[in-house]
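WARN no homologs supplied; continuing
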Amino acid sequence: MIVVNPDTRNDLGAEGNPALLDVICMTSKKSLVFLVLCILTAAVVLSAGCIGNSDSDMGNTLVYAGDATDTINPILDPHGEIVSLVFNGLMKYDGNANPVVDIAESYTYDAASKTYTFNLRKGVAWHDGEKFTADDVKFTYDVLMYDETVSTSIRSNYLDIESVTAMDDYTIVIKMKDDNAGMLGHFTVGILPEHLMKGKDISTDSFNQNPIGTGKYKFVEWDTAGGMIIFEKNTDYFGKVPNIDRVIYKTVSVESTKATMLSTGEADLALLNANYAKTFRGNSNYKNIDFKTADYRAMSMDFRTEFWQRNGDSIGVLNYALDKDAIVAGVLDGRGVTAFSPMQLNEYGGNPAADIYPYDLKKFHSEMEKLGWKKGSDGIYERNGEKFHFTIQVRGHEEERIDIANICAKMLKEQGVDMEIVVVTKFDWTAGYNGFLSGYATEFDPDVMYASYVTGGSDNTMQYSNAKVDELLEKARHETNPEKRKAIYWEFEKVYSETPGVVVVAYLDGNYVSIAGLDGLDTTRVLGHHAVGVMWNIEEWTLSK
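OK structure emitted
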């Protein structure tokens, strides 16, 4: 079964492709919906400045239409855009994706003893005025390493740490069990204030909605009724103080709403899907700011379900039935590339030997027969008395993902595989769905994949397991020679492509749109999942309204 919501379809550019044409319906209704949204949102604009600031204040207030969120905590939401506004790590990533010092002033690494020594900046204060010290760093890493009550996707990143010691207020020593080539990147995690969080339930404490950090912006207010989070610049920041006085982060889920907010003046900046971004191109009142990302979309299969426990050998072959070029051209308006590996755009990835699934329908059917699948009377493949039918959940507010999922389902159905799309409000990990239309990114050091692909990894939510993959990712994280390390990751890509847990479809560009008066966004950096990281140099931005 294919779920198509005609009120939220994009113009998929499907001429000449029947699979695409069949899922494009009633596009004129989408235009009508967009117009209605514009009218409704215009009323909100009239009150957009009424947040306790004068009109002149709003002239230096950036309104960003971002994704919905319920937590601002670097351990619980390590990849959130606004986490980086409030918190600092020992390290941070620069525009070229290299880890450089942040709240640490300097560091050394002694290879013989496998020990990092960080010298912290002096005179840094938390936003509540308390002094930042090495005890805060130790507290944070102790939580990551030992507090099993805290569910965090990044715990596996810190398995190689043996101990963390605060030598004095401004010196922290981290002794490793073994070399970890990605460790400097893992040291970018934001530091939590011990004086506020010690003894608290970090997962549920109100701190997560009232964060106190050391960062360039201070949290001011979370207006849940108005759907906005307000930040003010930290005039005492140890680095460059931002030019923009305030950031209002609008918590928005629906993609069309973000476009409407830009068109009516309620937002100054938003990430849009490719087809919405296209509507602003050539308009002198706006800027299209296009980033490269490592953000891919895939069908992630849930190995907790019996279907994939029995049929996991038949995941890779699905790639042969997907015209990924048509998906990129249509759904993404050509702003992306077809995908064959979860790390192909990483500097350590892109092994052409892992690109083993061209669009080839004859190959698809021959491989299905080799695997023992035979078509039933209804045209759906069967094996051992079981139809090739599985469910994939997709969140209803993500139009682009629904488009991708529906087209993939259409293509597969035509070849005898029944992929049922289930539209949900939020992902339900207990309902027994066979997978979800996923998005991930490996924009920085590829060791982040360890948590997602190693058996039992802290971010391995679909419980993929492959002994050879485990061996290669373990080997890669401990190899410090870049050339040898790249060779290991290339081998990982090939092994994984032969026994995948996901069907990767496409990498997306980051299609940001801003008002004409926003300057300073730097597109040097490759962005992450949902194009997160756009604010990496926000202190350099300027705004004129």
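Residues 179 and 478 are 5 Å apart (CA to CA).
OK
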